[in-house]
UniProtKB/TrEMBL annotation:
<dbReference type="Pfam" id="PF16363">
    <property type="entry name" value="GDP_Man_Dehyd"/>
</dbReference>
<dbReference type="InterPro" id="IPR016040">
    <property type="entry name" value="NAD(P)-bd_dom"/>
</dbReference>
<protein>
    <recommendedName>
        <fullName>dTDP-glucose 4,6-dehydratase</fullName>
        <ecNumber>4.2.1.46</ecNumber>
    </recommendedName>
</protein>
<dbReference type="InterPro" id="IPR005888">
    <property type="entry name" value="dTDP_Gluc_deHydtase"/>
</dbReference>
<keyword id="KW-0520">NAD</keyword>
<comment type="similarity">
    <text>Belongs to the NAD(P)-dependent epimerase/dehydratase family. dTDP-glucose dehydratase subfamily.</text>
</comment>
<dbReference type="GO" id="GO:0008460">
    <property type="term" value="F:dTDP-glucose 4,6-dehydratase activity"/>
</dbReference>
<keyword id="KW-0456">Lyase</keyword>
<feature type="domain" description="NAD(P)-binding">
    <location>
        <begin position="5"/>
        <end position="329"/>
    </location>
</feature>
<dbReference type="GO" id="GO:0009225">
    <property type="term" value="P:nucleotide-sugar metabolic process"/>
</dbReference>
<dbReference type="InterPro" id="IPR036291">
    <property type="entry name" value="NAD(P)-bd_dom_sf"/>
</dbReference>
């Protein structure tokens, strides 16, 4: 049975990846989920699989080298999928130090632990061991509005403390691949959306605020463009890179769904109006009048767009979910998990975990 160590598995993309992997492989794999349970980590995301015999949760900080090394010492880890990261741009502008510590130092700790566990006396590595570092398209900077795409060969040009910290972590992974021939890959993805996404991010924020009749904040003129990727398509891409990708390579994972932020908001409002049944009081709350333009974010990149040509040609992956279908799936999930949203926005889930782990 192959053992996967997933960092940040209680977060948005990590938890969706774990769900995807168990759905695909069931009892053929074992997953160890390591998460610090910061504000973005929520074990409710994994409630339905927490009792599986082939699933283990470990509360640990990826910056804690002793805790991470202990996991490798006690388990024969075959795959590392490294999601754990601070990821919100606004938070990075307010507190860059946290991002550098988690995203850079934490990645270094993970690399050193895996290298120590997998390296043979002759400097080569045990067969069939792989480390996948999950990164972002934001490391490439900003594109012109009238064309061009991010390729794996695009020079890095990060513009926020968040993207700079991720670019730094990418460079660390690359240095280990180049220096030690460490068995790894890097993936750089476009903006994800889907179930379990923390509501400070654009799409869940707009869904949640619109249903409550709250203002829908839009940075600047609202015409910043992002490439949107349904999270389960991303999970599939990560799995395929680990199984079919060439070692030491970087693969861009994009959704072919470029849209302006203001377009996203209008699509969400129209879809909510369509999906809410007649007589539901929330239907009257959902309105374009809620849209409120606010001062633009500092260093706000204008456009991101990934060309996923390499992963299509070498691995056979392609985005299966068009945005119109994906947003309906996402909204339907939020309709069916209103308690999850209430617990997250109230912060009750954090109080529960603090109490639970304090007593252990």
């Amino acid at each position: 049975m192959r053992t996967y160590l997933v960092t940040g598995g209680a977060g948005f993309i990590g938890s969706n990846y774990i769900h995807y992997m168990f759905k695909k492989y069931d009892n053929e794999i074992r997953i160890i989920n390591v998460d610090k349970l910061t504000y973005a980590g929520n074990l409710e995301n994994l409630k339905d699989i927490e009792d599986r015999e082939n699933y283990t949760f470990v509360k640990a900080d990826i910056c804690d080298s002793e805790a991470i090394m202990k996991i490798f010492d006690e388990n024969d880890i075959d795959r590392v999928v490294h999601f754990a990261a601070e990821s919100h741009v606004d938070r990075s502008i307010r507190n860059p130090e946290v991002f550098v510590k988690t995203n850079v130092l934490g990645t270094l700790v993970m690399l050193n632990a895996a290298k120590s566990a997998w390296e043979l006396p002759d400097g080569t590595f045990k067969p069939d061991k792989k480390f996948l570092h999950v990164s972002t398209d934001e490391v490439y900077g900003s594109l012109e509005e009238d064309g061009g795409f991010f390729y794996e060969t695009t020079p890095y040009d990060p513009h926020s403390p968040y993207s700079a910290s991720k670019a730094s972590s990418d460079m660390l992974v690359k240095s280990y691949m180049d220096t030690y021939k460490f068995p790894a890959n890097i993936t750089n993805c476009s903006n994800n959306y889907g179930p379990y996404q923390f509501p400070e991010k654009l799409i869940p924020l707009i869904i949640n605020n619109a249903l409550q009749g709250k203002k829908l904040p839009v940075y600047g003129d609202g015409k910043n463009v992002r490439d949107w990727l349904y999270v389960m398509d991303h999970a599939k891409g990560i799995d395929m890179v680990q199984e079919k990708g060439r070692l030491f390579e970087t693969y861009n994972i994009g959704g072919h769904n470029e849209k302006q932020n203001i377009q996203i908001i209008h699509i969400i409002l129209d879809t909510l109006q369509e999906m809410l049944p007649e007589g539901d009081p929330r239907k009257e709350l959902v309105s374009e009048n809620l849209i409120t333009y606010v001062e633009d974010r500092k260093g706000h990149d204008r456009r991101y767009a990934i060309a996923p040509d390499k992963i299509k040609e070498e691995v056979g992956w392609y985005p299966e979910t068009c945005f119109e279908d994906g947003i309906r799936l996402t909204i339907q999930w939020f309709f069916e998990h209103e308690d999850w949203m209430k617990n997250v926005t109230s912060g009750d889930y954090q109080k529960y975990y603090e109490a639970m782990y304090k007593t252990k």
